[in-house]
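Our consortium's second objective concerns turning raw sequence data into structural hypotheses that experimental partners can test. To show how far this objective has progressed, the report includes one record in full. It was chosen at random from the queue rather than selected for favorable results. The single chain below, 184 residues long, was entered without modification.
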Amino acid sequence: MEIQLVPFTPQDFDELIGWSGEAPFLMQWAGPMFHYPLTAEQLFAYNQDANNEQTSDKLNYRVLLASTNQGIGHVSIGSIDRDNGSARVTKVIVGESGFRGKGAGKAIVEAVLAICFGKLGLHRVTLGVFDFNIPALATYKHAGFTIDGILRDARKMGETYWNLVEMSILEDEWRAIQKIGNQE
């Protein structure tokens, strides 16, 4: 599946709000930064000072299906630390349900890593995923992420606590995967 990442703008807020879902789903893809219900005000604050590839500490993207320019998802590269060569992939959502389970998540992760390691020249990229999100865990592992550890009972949703799996990938690991992929 070919996708394109374009800067997330206020014109995209309604689309993301429409995908945000109920409180548990919002927490699953967005973490604790947003609260239910997601609003344009929250997204305005989230998007403020984002998207300058040279100076911003976060790059927020709308995910488009390349063949039609249809919006199908969202992703962010946050906590960009140029001094230490690191960042964190956050806010990953395949919003259009018809594209879930069809390679969109894999395409998003590959595109984000190409930006992190290729364009930004980073050394380490991290992410967190809840342990019950088996499809996402499989996607991240397939992309080369390694489990660094588990934060037990890291988030509370209703009366239930969720475990957060911390994962990372290093530049040389990503480059090795790219080399193998180009030989196939």
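The partners drew two points from this record. The chain has one domain: 3-183. The radius of gyration is 16 Å. Both points have been shared with the crystallography group to help prioritize constructs.
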